[in-house]
Amino acid sequence: MPRIKALTTGSIPSFLDMVLNIAESDTSSSLANQDSWIAQMKAKNTGKLAMYGDDTWLKLFPNTFDRADGTSSFFVSDYTDVDHNVTRHVPSELLNDDWNVMIMHYLGLDHIGHKSGSSRAHRSDGISINMVPKQQEMDEVVKHIYAAFQSMRALKNSLLVLCGDHGMTDGGNHGGSAPGETSPAMVFVSPKLKAVTRGANCPTHPRRDLEYYDLIEQSDIAPTLAGLLGFPVPLNNLGVFIPQLLPIFKNGEQSLIRCWRLRSHTSEDDQMELLYRNALELANIVKETFPHEIYTAENSVPNCKPPSTTTDELACLWATAASSLKERPWSVKASQAPLLKVS
């Protein structure tokens, strides 16, 4: 549950979230009244929301999904039916054109890790005997979905975010701070990304413990989806737009799903507006936490003395950036825009 909260709201889970995560029957940890990209996509009302897999999503977002089929994550001996129950819905959903979000939370790999570890010596190469076949099964699901993106008109602007909510140790455990537990992989998949990505060698060797390519925070997913899919950055988000995806806006793809509004300015303005809106949300949080006179400065660049604290430095950087962008029409609109109220 804590990791799903980070993935959807862009905020940091609290200690209470960790405690409530243990209680399977708990309903007090719902995210129904918190802003998230799930709530934003629901508010857009451009399509239905579907969810298949781990029923934690149904507990965190009650009465949110139009179609759902949840499975319990506590039967760790089952790593077959829990995944088949997700995959069986994929072919029919790919033929539907009435949804704008489909979540598939597979549990098989997690259960195999808990049951037999990820790297115990069940084979001569030290990999759990069930792990590779399960990974190959997931590969086939991804291939099926990507093939549909390429061949079906209704899915040509779709985006698949393939990620883990956590990793695991060699023994299959997670919840700690070891690199294996805190370094799950993530890939953004879309035919539209071919024009803006440089490609990468695969397989490759890690620079150090499980650092293969670029590192991001889980909280970065929420503002990135906001920019790509065209909705406001969730309130209380602490993440930043993933910079490697900024070239999308140079390529004229203001939104992977659809252009959310007509634009008359340049691709550079698109990028700056996106980053400004993201920074504005972060600045609002910092202002509430660390009130500072520089945050109230308007219409002039502050005379920043050498900052004595990191808070002073942040306040000065924000005031300088906001002042330099004040003439941009979108900066005024962004700073005055009302926050989306999620009920």
Characterize the structure shown.
This protein is mostly helical. The protein has helices at residues 2-9, 15-20, 37-44, 56-60, 81-87, 90-95, 108-116, 131-151, 179-182, 221-229, 247-250, 267-289, 310-324, 329-336; strands at 48-54, 67-71, 99-105, 160-163, 186-189. The chain has a three-stranded parallel sheet with strand order 2-1-3, sandwiched between helices. Strands 4-5 form a two-stranded antiparallel sheet. Strand 1, helix 4 (56-60) and strand 2 (67-71) form a beta-alpha-beta unit. The radius of gyration is 22 Å and the shape is globular. The two termini are 21 Å apart. Residues 18-24, 120-124, 254-266 and 336-343 have low confidence and may be disordered.
Distance between the termini: 21 Å
The succession of helices and strands, N to C, reads HHHEHEHHEHHEHEHHHHH
Quickly give the structural class. mainly alpha
Strand content: 5-15%
Query: How is the biggest beta sheet arranged?
Result: 3 strands, parallel
- Strand element count: 5
The spatial strand order of the largest sheet comes to: 2-1-3
Overall 3D shape:
globular
Detail the poorly predicted runs: 18-24, 120-124, 254-266, 336-343
Radius of gyration: 22 Å
Number of helices: 14
Mean pLDDT: 77
